[in-house]
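Ticket closed. Logging final result for Primosomal protein DnaI.
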Amino acid sequence: MEDISEVITRIIKKRKLGEDSKKIAKTAIKHPKVQAFLAQNKERLNKEIVQVSLPTIFNYVEQIESPNPVMEGYTPKLFLNGKVIDITYVPTEAKLNSEAKKRAENRIELIDLPAKLRHVELANVDATPERENALNEVAMFLAEFKKNKHIKGLYLTGDFGVGKTYILAGVANAIARQGSRVVFLHVPSFIASLGSHFQDNSLNDEIDRIASAPVLIFDDIGAETLSEWSRDDVLGVILQKRMDNVLPTFFSSNITMDGLNEHFAETRNSVDEVKARRLMERVRFLSKEVFVGGKNRRN
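Final structure:
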């Protein structure tokens, strides 16, 4: 280990400081973070350990006050390494938060929705009076979801552009932060693209994968054009499996649950109110209807 005077003299020359080594050493020892470390470890430290570790302490203070860009995202930390004080490097809080955010975003699978929805956080959602009830319901869901992964989701209904999808994007992010995978799909686009799975016979696997997702969000349900097949053998199968396993499911729609019942009854070639009611039983079992008001923010 280098002598403290050599270390300090070298840094004095590098930084062109007009101070002597003893004065700088005393300043380093008095640094609040050094004092905190010494206080926390006073039962294990003695004068000899501190004296021999002065170069390390000085380097530590230098790195605190003049961070090296190469070490961005990490901060030095003192620790007792046998009979000497040494330095380790730990991630900063900002880096930990950034990495947690990236991991959460990777747990969100978007199907036919813009990638920017991965970055929406509930803290950034305007808490207007018209959204208060919906945001309260969201908060209650998230609190309960921490304890129970098999609970009812929400059915957000309201006019165009009031922020239903945006709120659900924040919900997806919050759920992903808790460690759960979320599938977030745009229903009209998903239904329209079902034919693409016929070529490789992957449709059943895709339906099963979506039906089994720990959390599923149906965006803009009720705006799709349905056939009897897409209603009964796709949506019906997904909703049935989710109901059987009590998997949290969310919906956004411009129409109420009663309106969705009417939508499900009418397909391209027929009207079947019985099958529509059967499907709606699953929707009502899986979610609670919540109105979202406000102005159209797209205009």
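The first helix runs from residue 4 to 15. No further action required.
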